[in-house]
Amino acid sequence: MSALHKAEALIWGIPGGIHPAERKELSNRTPIQPAPLPKRLTLPLNQHIGAPAEPVVTVGERVLKGQLIAAATGFVSVPVHAPTSGTVSFIGSQPYPHVSGMLAPAIVIDSDGQDKWIELTPCADYRHLENSALVELIRQAGISGLGGAGFPTAVKLNARPTQKIHTLIINGTECEPYISADDLLMRERANELISGIDILVQLIQPDQVLIGIEDNKPEAIAAVRHALAERSYQLKVFPTKYPSGGEKQLIQILTGVEVPSGGLPADIGMLCQNVGTCVAIHNAVIHGKPLISRITTLTGEALARPMNVEVLLGTPVGELLEFAGLDRGKLNRLIMGGPMMGFTLPDFAVPVIKTTNCLLASTTAELPPPPPAMPCIRCGECAEACPASLLPQQLHFFAIGQEHEQLKAHNLFDCIECGACAYVCPSSIPLVQYYRAAKGEIRDLEQKQLKAEQSKQRFELRQERLRRAEEQKEAERQARAAKAAQAKAAQAQGSPAAANGDTAAAKPAGLSDEQKKLKIEASMAQVALKKAEKQLATHASPELQAQVDELRSAAAIAQQALDTAMTANPPAPTAAPVADDGALKKAKIDAAMLRAQVRKLEKLEAPSDEQQSELQQLRSQLEAAEKLLASLEAQAPAPAASQPGSPGASTCRQTGCRRWRTEKSQDRRCHAACPSAQAGKT
Q: Domain 1-17+124-288 adopts which CATH fold?
């Protein structure tokens, strides 16, 4: 046995799996046919997983084949291009290929019949391009996965920029019944397939390339083997079993390695690409053509001429089926995709999109409606058929009971929705439908929880901002009150110098103008240094380190200059404080303000490190303020009793009563109790 055939023989198996009737012979006996050019094309803006594209054309604008008509709007997004030349006739909601019959934003182009291309920019010598430029070519070509859910290819190539991809796997399995688009593609375009693989190898530099094809495609196997020539890529042929074409299942078959639950192939250094995606990459890089068409299987017993066609994206499904000879009298169900994982289309107006690999027009005899579901008999057939080694029966019960935590614990999201469990179920339970509904419910709940958490965080941040603003206002109010009280006390004592006590206290006693200037410069240098040190601790970089060193030197120079000036001309000593009424009032106000600040910080349930440090500092200041207050109170003279003629009281002119008060309310009480007042003599 040759080395190549030995490499092909190294395959592994997967658990479960089924062998439904293939029915591929309906469509794989004729070459790929070009589909007729439709009069109108409908291009949905979201033909892939991720954010929809945004239109860059307007109604009435003429476009050429391959021209950009909608740009990608995010990282997980791809652009849309015009499949033919014509005029943009409508931008808005149009039918979308979905089981619900939903509408989706789309661009409608009326074809002019000329099919005229824009000027293309091929890049045959791609090996001299930077990887980023090569990935950008693939992204701008609008390429998304053509064999599965339509994940943007450029995003997949950049999924793990720091993770080494050691194995590139090319998926030519096409395991689902009826579908033969990839089979015919490999037969007729094997050289373009290998060229696309070469581009991927140039990008990711894998240690090995494995091409997997099931053994029910002998013509495709022969064509790919011939196109490989002297390349070291390994072609691996393995027995047919559904669903061998699943990404995780194919990796296990070709390498014997399992992708971890909830993980991606990139987590174990592997990358999978469909053969159709590889050909699209070849066309984008070598010929400069964006993704505007794809190979689609038209099959089913309701068609007179089942075949594979190369169809422009946006072509109405009804026109394609008419081209294949649809007998509407025989048609029972129209399925987009295969009979296992496809879905029923509600009408013929929906367009072909990038993920449309098959249109199955089945008769009643071909795909009879399933019998009514019956209770589960716990036979275990579903568990034996599951290729992901799950427990479908348990998942079914948890889905009915909406036990979301149990569903996640039993790895619901590892289900690939292949339908093998429902296929073997003797009770005809539509298990996959339950799983899809449960996944949707869980995603919706998680999204709501995320929004609620974000709202809670925004509310808490707002409350914190309001609290700080209120504290600042309170501190400013107390400062104003203290200043007013000092000014009032100074005015009452007739001491103009005391009225300016705050200003004098704020300035260092006895400092010259030069010393004040040096002190301010030294303080500013220290502030700038601390700010730069905080930035360096958060985001270390050589530039910030150099800036910190420079600021540290400047701060040292400023401090040295200040020390020199202070040594040469020492400031005059500050006069000892006088225990007067103004100083006592100020000490009381300062102590009250500090107590208020300490109480507010002590009320916090979970103070931060900065708040804890601030609390300790305030407690120390409060202790010092209380000591000063106690000292001033001890020095202050005892308050004298109010005497007649004092500011707080006056004597009744008639009776000499000392109860007479200047306050209005007390004035009334004195009048009411005073005999002279009752006699009208006051």
A: Rossmann fold (3.40.50)
